């Protein structure tokens, strides 16, 4: 899960000036919601709906606005305060937007199954795949084998944050493997210090940050193919392939003296500010796992963010072996609700390597390896892009977002909270999640 869960914003609609023109052929048949055929002149106004946060939205609107002006198309921007609820309501009411940015591939594929979305044509997929990080095309592919969504931008979740001066002064080295990470954890503890800050409090959504931990570890222990099977419900949480990820996390989360405040404090510590103890004197912890959004306002202290390159030293969450580099990401996937030429033209631009210039300046990562990393606002993010994201051997989107909501936004949050709070053991936790998985998901 990503920081959108902490974002509550008003629904807005803003038009970008322009005149209608242009067309784009597609393999998809049928007519559009306003009656024009795929080969016709196209809509005069194309609506894009999204739930982007305040750090991503300005850059997205700037990129799309510039494209719209060049193509003489008017774009209406609609921001959803509650994406799931609002997009379902609009689709059910026969008033879907033209283009939607889905933070959940699972919901997108649900609508694709209902024939509410238009797949990408093969040529566009082939072109984008040349530059996309491995795994991103698969993330937008639904059960029928067609690609319905490709990413606009992504955040990187596979990151460990440190206080750079304190980490260096203590003589600690960045771990290259998961075994190295356990060794480092034990060393920090042996030095009389607290290795970890772990934070899972998020109001009504408390527990979701643990899903990021587990997803990263499943990707490493089980591998990308088994990760995909797990997300689809084809591998159980308590299976031999998936359980080792939980057992590894257990070594850290339940390790005596390993977590600031102890194991039970995890579910009471806010996910955005829970790593701020890295920067106290003396440090309250030395390692904090969180996605890149934590380096924005509302996460780390302002004084740290203003000097991010010298105050922090982010580390790639290590793999099982030093030669591997799986990366977990969050992001928003562009999909089309009709095959109007200008709808498809806008959708295809959003997913293309040409998009993202202004978003990068605001700190958002392009999913395309060819992106100019120098546009990112600081060396820290530039390094994460070039050395982590764009060197990924396999990338996967947040798995809980693709699982049935009863699990991905339900028991996958709540059962680990009970476990970390001491109310039940690990096997009970995993069995309870498995029992909640809809049978149709297997």
UniProtKB/TrEMBL annotation:
The organism's taxonomic lineage, starting at the top: Bacteria, Bacillati, Actinomycetota, Actinomycetes, Micrococcales
UniProtKB keywords: Signal, Transport
InterPro entries: Bact_solute-bd_prot1, SBP
UniProt entry tagged with the keyword Transport: yes
Domain of life: Bacteria
Signal peptide segment: 1-20
Organism: Terrabacter carboxydivorans
Family from the record: Belongs to the bacterial solute-binding protein 1 family.
Full protein name: ABC transporter substrate-binding protein
Pfam families assigned: SBP_bac_1
């Amino acid at each position: 899960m990503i920081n959108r869960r902490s974002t509550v914003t008003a629904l807005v609609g803003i038009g970008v000036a322009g005149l209608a023109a242009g067309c784009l052929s597609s393999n998809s048949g049928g007519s559009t919601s306003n009656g024009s055929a795929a080969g016709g002149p196209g809509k005069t106004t194309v609506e894009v709906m999204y739930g982007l946060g305040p750090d991503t939205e300005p850059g997205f609107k700037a990129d799309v606005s510039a494209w719209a002006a060049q193509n003489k198309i008017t774009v209406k921007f609609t921001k959803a305060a509650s994406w799931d609820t609002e997009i379902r309501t609009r689709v059910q009411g026969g008033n879907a937007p033209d283009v939607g940015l889905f933070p959940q591939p699972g919901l997108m594929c649900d609508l694709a199954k209902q024939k509410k979305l238009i797949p990408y044509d093969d040529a566009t997929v082939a072109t984008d795949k040349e530059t996309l990080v491995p795994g991103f095309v698969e993330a937008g592919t639904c059960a029928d084998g067609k690609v319905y969504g490709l990413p606009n931008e992504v955040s990187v979740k596979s990151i460990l944050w440190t206080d750079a001066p304190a980490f260096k002064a203590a003589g600690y080295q960045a771990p290259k493997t998961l075994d190295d990470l356990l060794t480092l954890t034990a060393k920090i503890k042996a030095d009389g210090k607290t290795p970890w800050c772990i934070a899972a409090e998020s109001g009504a959504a408390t527990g979701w940050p643990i899903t990021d931990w587990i997803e990263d570890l499943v990707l490493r222990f089980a591998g990308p193919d088994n990760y995909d099977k797990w997300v689809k419900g084809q591998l159980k949480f308590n299976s031999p392939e998936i359980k080792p990820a939980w057992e590894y996390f257990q070594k850290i989360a339940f390790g005596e003296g390993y977590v600031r405040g102890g194991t039970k404090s995890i579910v009471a510590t806010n996910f955005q500010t829970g790593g701020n103890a890295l920067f106290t004197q003396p440090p309250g912890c030395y390692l904090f796992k969180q996605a890149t959004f934590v380096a924005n306002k509302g996460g780390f202290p302002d004084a740290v963010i203003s000097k991010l390159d010298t105050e922090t030293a982010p580390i790639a969450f290590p793999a099982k072996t030093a030669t591997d580099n799986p990366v977990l990401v969050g992001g928003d996937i562009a999909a089309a609700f009709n095959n109007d030429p200008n709808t498809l033209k806008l959708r295809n631009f959003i997913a293309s390597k040409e998009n993202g210039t202004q978003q990068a300046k605001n700190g958002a990562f392009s999913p395309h390896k060819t992106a100019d990393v120098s546009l990112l606002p600081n060396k820290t993010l530039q390094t994460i892009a070039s050395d982590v994201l764009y060197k990924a051997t396999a990338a996967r989107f947040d798995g809980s977002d693709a699982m049935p909501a009863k699990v991905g936004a339900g028991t996958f949050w709540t059962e680990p909270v009970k476990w970390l709070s001491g109310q039940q053991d690990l096997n009970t936790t995993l069995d309870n999640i498995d029992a909640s998985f809809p049978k149709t998901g297997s």
